[in-house]
Amino acid sequence: AEEETQVVEWKPAQIRQVLPSGRFIACVNGEEDFYEEFGADEQGVEWRRTKDSAATAKAFAVAAKAAAEAAAAAAATNLGEQEASTEQEVKTKKKGGRPPGKKSNKRELELSDSDAVSRPEKRAKVTLSGTAPSIPVGIRNGGVGDALSVGKTVEVRGHDRHFEGSWFTAEVVESRNDMRKVKYEALFDGEGDGGRVEEWLRLELLRPLPPPTPASNAWRKQLKVGTAMELQHEGGWWQVEFVSAAHGAMAEVAENILIKARQWGDEHILVQASKLRPGWQWRAAKNDWSRGAVIE
User: Fold this and answer.
1) What ranges does the record list as Basic residues composition bias (predicted)?
2) Could you give the CA distance from residue 140 to residue 134 in angstroms, rounded to a whole number?
3) Using one digit for the tens of pLDDT, what is the confidence trace for 244-274?
């Protein structure tokens, strides 16, 4: 029998987040419930750059409008069918597959104002269970799953320019596999309506709220040059290093402490001791905390 020829079609998409690892997450073909992750090693196989980013952006806008209109029409036509389809879609997503009716063709992904990329269709892969790999029950029901579940208050590691070395508090408002949508307490939209920022993030950028700072200052007795601490500043907590207590005082009783931070150029800065807390490190595998390591 003759081998069937597969026709490849490229679809527009937009990059929604660049991860610290250099990989990126994109919204495909204007479908806001369809996000995928890509890396540089997949260029030319999973995605490609396009020469006309303006045309790609226009195609994405058209696709997004069509997707929105199709969703609205489906809802207006038969709410009952939509609910049944939604239930099936959720089941399909839990198995790692695509919802019924979603195509798996190649897609263009816009990288910047001057660049764009795209990705191709892939054949579904399944494990011995007949489905795509799933999260082990022990992890889903405890550890990271519980600590970073919907409704939890967490801290988000700064991943944008000028926010390196920071932790900002946020609430988890939505969950999707290893992604979480968070709403910040003290970060606001500087270009839109000024409301609190919401964004989708990978689990590696989140941690639970650290333990409360000890009521006594005994923890500061263990400080030595280079010990990691965190400074409360502009609504967030910033990673800093201990330099010395001011005026030769003992660290546990000093009102002011000299610190430095790599993200601020290692300049020595005098701050109020009351605005400092231990430099917390969360070990996700054990779901516990350590503090005060010396920064090399």
Assistant:
1) 92-105
2) 9
3) 999 888 999 999 999 999 888 878 999 999 9
* Span 86-98, average pLDDT: 52
Q: Say if residues 144 and 61 touch (Cβ distance below 8 Å).
A: no
3-state secondary structure of 168: strand
Q: Which residue has the tokens 């799953």?
A: 145
Residue 280 three-state SS: strand
Domain that holds residue 180: 137-208
- Domain count of the fold of the chain: 3
Indicate if 51 and 102 belong to the same structural domain. yes
Helix-then-strand count for the chain, H and E: 4, 18
Q: Which residue has the tokens 């709403």?
A: 183
CA distance 220 to 296: 19
N- to C-terminal Cα separation, the chain: 64
- Tell me the DSSP string of 67-118: HHHHHHHHHHH-HHHHHHHHHHHHHHHHTT-PPTT----EEEEE-SSS-EEE
The reply to whether 75 falls in a domain is yes
Among 277, 239, 274, 271, which residue's Cα sits nearest to residue 258?
271
Token pair for residue 259? 């610190």
> Any idea which residue has 């806008």 for tokens?
61
Q: Is the pTM of this model over 0.70?
A: no
Which of 68, 86, 119 represents a domain boundary (last residue)? 119
Strand, coil or helix: 59:
helix
> Who contacts 243 (Cβ-Cβ below 8 Å, separation ≥6)?
225, 257, 258, 259, 260, 268
